[in-house]
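#onboarding

Welcome to the new folks! Below is a worked example of what a typical request in this channel looks like: someone posts a single protein sequence, and someone else replies with the predicted structure as tokens. Don't worry about understanding the tokens yet, we'll cover that in week two.

Example request:
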Amino acid sequence: MTSQALVRRPRWAAAAMLAALVAPCGLNAQPAQTSQSQPWLEAAPLKRIVDSSGKTEPAARGVWKSRGYGWILAIDETGVTRYQDGVQCYTPPGENGGQSTMDSIEYRFFRMLPGNRAAIFQLLEGDTNVVFDRLDRLPARCTDAPDTSPQAIADEFLNAFAQHYAFFDRRPPGHEERAARLRALISDDMSEAGLWDALAAYMEGLSDSHTKLIGTIDGERRRVQDGQGSTLPMIRASQGGEGAWLGGLIDQAKAKLGDSAHHEGQDRILWGLIDGPDGVRIGYLQVFVMGGFTPGEDFSSDAWAAAEMAELNRVLDEALGAFQDADAVIIDLSNNRGGWDRVAKALPSRFTDSAFTGFTTQARGSGLAPFPNRIAPADGLRFTGPVYLMTSDVTVSGGELATLAFRQLPNVTQVGGTTRGAFSTPLAKPLPNGWLLELSNETFADEAGNVFEESGIAPDVALDIYPADDPVAGHWRAVEQVAAMARRRTPAD
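Example response:
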């Protein structure tokens, strides 16, 4: 069998019928295309902003203002300066690699649009299309020293939510009610701790794990983040906490899989074979994070991206090679904490023999149509037989994007619990005093336009993956229930 071979198994009528009920109509239908709302259709080829010698591409030089996102970029011969474009315009304070992953990344590529007055900027090839328009000059206000008074910080904080947060319709109460409460708390003589508490009160009950406030007060690192679901808070409050739980889950799975168990990709991927007494064999693949498969630390560099995908593909080729005689495959994303969108798309590409739109992306304030994230069949080994996708309320972000894509496939049945309901890539908005706000500004949907933010993606078959009385043993009991489900749908020879 070559690396291009397709592992084929029968498609079951029941799976096709189920998919017809839950998947959108017109799976491969394309929306009407216009250059105004879909500029990526007419964009020039991808170019680097900065070449290997450290010089910028002449065509990229100038001042650029983003559509949505709230950024201004000033690009000269020597590099790129990033400005926060809100109530004030300022360079993010203390930029030294950022306070979070999203705060540390910078655009590396651009695609010029016709007329050279606008361009698409991207972190990596294939990532989110962020359109910037060329300005004649840097706005004068961007050269002023930023106001760091409590009122100015609150204004910047509220403006970020008002301009960019995409989900007040799904996470009531809305912005105006929260903003009024915050404004009533602000005074010129309030302490730094008092200001922090006021901003934190605005975020209380927002139930969005992608929206957070990070900062340091009197040497103490603080973080406000809500929307963790029910399982993780339960685990974190238990004896041993999350570390003991994860260790127990991994040890248990490896013991159950026996000699077939493989724990690879920097311990982010676990796979093996489940053999039944009736001779039915079921492949098992658990992915904990959408990335981090290599020890590289230069997040978002070309070398990092290439190494990550190479390692992922190596592991998947090995696993799917072992699954070639399997009667079904269980893909376990019930503990997937998200990560890189490209990995979220690479997984379902291994379980289809035709291209499809996995999900769409649209940023608030961009004025752009939803961008269709197309998924083509992978070049490596694939499996198109019955697939069971395990999810829970721990499944979040990139894990949910993969779930959106998997649900488009007629051979996939989602089992377990409803996903977390936090899809958007966090938008980093540094405040003038050095605190960092991250919020959800992008709407991810299936091709029919269905949005699952806050509600999460409900399974086709409900199972309790992490029961409160025994969240370790309960997980493998759920795996065995899914395996039994697969066996019932496997015809006798």
